[in-house]
Amino acid sequence: xxxxxxxxxxxxxxxxxxxxxxxxxxxxxxxxxxxxxxxxxxxxxxxxxxxxxxxxxxxxxxxxxxxxxxxxxxxxxxxxxxxxxxxxxxxxxxxxxxxxxxxxxxxxxxxxxxxxxxxxxxxx
Length: 124
Fold this sequence. Notes:
The chain is built from two helices and nine strands, in the order αββαβββββββ. By secondary structure, the chain is mostly beta strands. It has one domain (about 5-120). An eight-stranded antiparallel β-barrel has the order 2-3-4-5-6-7-8-9. A hairpin with a 5-residue loop joins strand 7 and strand 8 (about 105-110). Mean pLDDT is about 80; it is low at about 1-10.
């Protein structure tokens, strides 16, 4: 399957699960989510730091890579992102969902198995 068709399929699936009346689907990430987010201390010390992310209007930066944001949906303090990432030269789709705290200083990301990763606004 070509990367373009994977992107199209991923976008359709992403948009199909976004309630039309409650979410705003945008190309750019809302301002309150933009910035550098540092991993708070995790139970596994290796997870601290390597899971830091940087979110901009059109891109998300990971520890050693970055991805182009294809679509974003925002509802109140929640953000869902559909991201195109390159894994070993192959374009793939990744989906992320973040919940921002009321004070805008931390974001939570739900992971597999009910694990929640918390990141705080980095002070660099």
